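Design request, tokens follow.
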């Protein structure tokens, strides 16, 4: 991507996620919470902005009009942030709640603690909002389907394993990023496929029905993940097999 496209993608990411307001709230905590906690929260905003910028460059490389794309994404992302406490479950929900509690114990105000902790949901939230828009479906309904699918298939576990890979050098970092992006893309593909054929009144039931119709492939995926989880160490080749197994389910 050229410099102009990267700058526009970053501007969209920053405005769509309302992160400038969050930066102000974090800075306002000077001398009220440990500096290390402030650095950690700021670093988290940087991480998610980087992901959102990559996401925009990959998905909207020919549509990076800042005002138009922010207008599409920002309301949905804000709706998900508000709804997050009643939506989150499974490993992702546990991890977000644990992070929020840790910030609260460091005297971070509840609003800021919750907002920063839920940033971990942002990579998924971008896909949720995009699928909801393309399918003209309610955002919260799509979120329920997407998050339930991730919990049942243990895709949060898979992402954590990928993110935990130790890298040495540029190309291993690229390989890890490619695996991580592959998991997100396949999760989105599955959710979009299910939402496309779902009744709008019960998105979770739609996921369960789809999984039941593909029970053999789902069970194979679960056994694959369970076998991998029993290993003392999970490496790049192992996780490449895991992502390929997920791909077969998504494309089957």
């Amino acid at each position: 991507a050229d410099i102009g496209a990267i700058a526009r993608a970053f501007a969209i990411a920053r405005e769509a996620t309302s992160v400038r307001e969050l930066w102000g709230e974090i800075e306002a905590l000077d001398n009220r919470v440990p500096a290390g906690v402030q650095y950690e929260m700021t670093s988290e905003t940087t991480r998610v902005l980087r992901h959102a910028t990559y996401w925009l460059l990959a998905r909207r490389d020919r549509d990076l009009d800042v005002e138009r794309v922010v207008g599409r994404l920002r309301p949905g992302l804000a709706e998900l942030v508000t709804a997050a406490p009643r939506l989150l479950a499974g490993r992702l929900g546990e991890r977000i709640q644990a992070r929020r509690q840790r910030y609260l114990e460091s005297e971070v105000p509840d609003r800021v603690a919750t907002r920063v902790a839920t940033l971990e949901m942002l990579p998924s939230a971008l896909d949720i909002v995009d699928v909801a828009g393309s399918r003209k479906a309610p955002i919260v309904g799509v979120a329920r389907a997407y998050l339930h699918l991730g919990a049942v298939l243990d895709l949060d576990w898979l992402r954590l394993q990928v993110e935990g890979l130790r890298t040495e050098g540029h190309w291993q970092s690229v390989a890890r990023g490619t695996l991580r992006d592959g998991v997100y893309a396949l999760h989105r593909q599955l959710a979009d496929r299910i939402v496309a054929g779902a009744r709008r009144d019960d998105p979770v039931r739609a996921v369960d029905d789809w999984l039941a119709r593909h029970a053999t492939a789902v069970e194979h995926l679960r056994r694959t993940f369970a076998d991998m989880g029993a290993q003392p160490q999970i490496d790049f080749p192992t996780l490449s097999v895991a992502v390929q197994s997920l791909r077969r389910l998504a494309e089957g």
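Comment from the thread starter after seeing the answer: thanks! The mean pLDDT is 91.
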